[in-house]
Amino acid sequence: MYNGYSSYDSEIQRHTICNSPLSSCIPTGVAEKIAMPYLTHIYELIISNRSFSVTTDKDFKWTLEIFSFGFTCEESSIYQLCANVYVEWLKVFENTSTNSNSIPPILREKTEFYWSQMFWHLYHLFVVHDEKIADLLTKRMYTHKVLRQLQIMISQTELNFDLWHIILQVFLAIGDTVLSPPYLSRFYLD
User: Fold this and answer.
1) How many domains does the chain have?
2) pTM for this structure?
3) Spatial separation of the C-alpha atoms in residues 20 and 6, rounded to whole Å
4) How many CB atoms lie within 10 A of CB 19?
5) Residues spanned by the domain of 170
6) In the chain, N or C: fewer CB atoms in 10 Å?
7) 173 in a domain, yes or no?
């Protein structure tokens, strides 16, 4: 839409491409079979307010790889689980989240470090991927749910400069994606 809209253009482009091994090295059907039970398990922990046992950086980075794939995946049940978990995990910024066992301890310890990576996953909620057209109404509903929680988090939290900078970049990327010309399918080009 407006190419080169900011001095952040190259930085933003670097983050908008999903580099998850699940999306680049494994067939989509297999990746979905890997992600679905893991995401279901995390969501069940949230519902029952049980602790999430991932405590090492290596394991949590793998969890983030699953979410990176989940937000780019067009399987509606997968990105719904991702959105629901992120809504709960965004509560780590709220003072009321201290009683929630479902927020991983490592996310509490390194909140700003991990959320600086996790905010970029939210960008993919706004992208319609070419491979498979998902139920757009469902996707919009979950996008709205995440944005509402993000609005609450931003209004109630004093974020450091780096997180504000990342949120600005994410919203610039989202704005560019949403306001860009619609994808023209090959059927219209013939």
Assistant:
1) 1
2) 0.78
3) 26
4) 10
5) 9-126+133-178
6) C
7) yes
